[in-house]
Design goal:
- Keywords: Cell outer membrane, Lipoprotein, Membrane, Palmitate, Signal.
- Belongs to the BamD family.
- It is a lipid-anchor.
- The chain is an all-alpha fold.
- 72% of the residues lie in helices and 3% in strands.
- It has a two-stranded antiparallel sheet.
- Helix 10 packs antiparallel against helix 11.
Length: 274
């Protein structure tokens, strides 16, 4: 009985020694273990400012591991997002943003996170756009632009007095114009191929979702032409009347029997007589 007890005791002692050695070894392997949380944050920020983004991330992650559920850890998470963004690790940055919003939905910097979310998708879309020339820019996939738009809309709707509202509003205008152009491109595609119902529907989508954009006149014109081709004269005239009222100098009104004068479009005399 005593021999058995002694054996168990020796096993426990051995396990304790291994555990202690492992703990000491782990500390030696951790090159940041001697640094305080504030030291880690300051060192991470220095690397961030010096564009050593991966090194900065290592410091921030050390803070999260050693000082979880603290204000230091929260700041480290925010700084890590910024580092990922500048290092063009977009997927990592977006994943960190989602996690932070889920953990701290009422954090004082939450508007910044939605802004960064929009900015990352905005930059992704723009990097593609910069490689294209009009009208090809309207052909790209719209998902990232729509996600970016939603994030910026969240900023201006929930935090209208915040630091990021003004810039978000400007980006919303740009994105809405670009998304409207993409829809117009599709509407023109349908119109050129005599798919008039599809053209009219795409034009209506622009009028319903992207009012006050630079594509409204295009949508009204396409709609008037499509309805005219379908023999829906009343609907065509309604679209034409709105186009005439809001864009009286639009040269495409000539196609509907108007003459463009210094005071706006007027029906030509021959059309009036008929």
């Amino acid at each position: 009985m005593k021999a058995k007890t002694l054996k168990i005791f020796m096993i426990l002692i051995t396990a304790g020694v291994i555990s202690a050695c492992g703990s000491t070894s782990a500390k030696k392997d951790d090159k940041y273990y001697a640094m305080t949380g504030q030291d880690l944050l300051e060192e991470g920020n220095k690397n961030l400012e010096g564009a050593s983004y991966e090194v900065a991330v290592q410091h921030y992650e050390a803070i999260e591991a050693r000082f979880p559920n603290t204000s230091l850890a929260e700041q480290a998470k925010l700084n890590k997002i910024y580092a990922h963004y500048h290092n063009r690790d977009h997927d990592k940055a977006l994943a960190e943003i989602d996690t932070f919003i889920r953990l701290y939905p009422h954090h004082e910097s939450i508007d910044y996170l939605y802004y960064m979310q929009g900015l990352i998708n905005f930059d992704r879309a723009r990097s593609i756009l910069d490689k294209l020339l009009p009208p090809d820019r309207a052909k790209i996939d719209q998902n990232q632009m729509k996600e970016s738009l939603q994030s910026f809309m969240t900023v201006i709707e929930r935090y209208p007095d915040g630091d990021y509202a003004e810039d978000s509003a400007e980006r919303v205008i740009y994105l809405r114009n670009l998304l409207a152009e993409a829809e117009i491109h599709k509407a023109k595609f349908y119109l050129d191929r005599h798919a008039y119902v599809g053209a009219a529907n795409r034009a209506q989508y622009v009028l319903d979702n992207y009012d006050a954009t630079t594509s409204v006149s295009d949508a009204l014109y396409i709609q008037a032409k499509a309805y005219q081709a379908l023999g829906l004269d009343e609907l065509s005239q309604k679209s034409l009347a709105v186009l005439l009222h809001n864009f009286p100098y639009d040269k495409r009104l000539v196609e509907f029997g108007y003459t463009i004068t210094p005071t706006g479009a007027v029906l030509t005399e021959s059309v009036v007589e008929e």
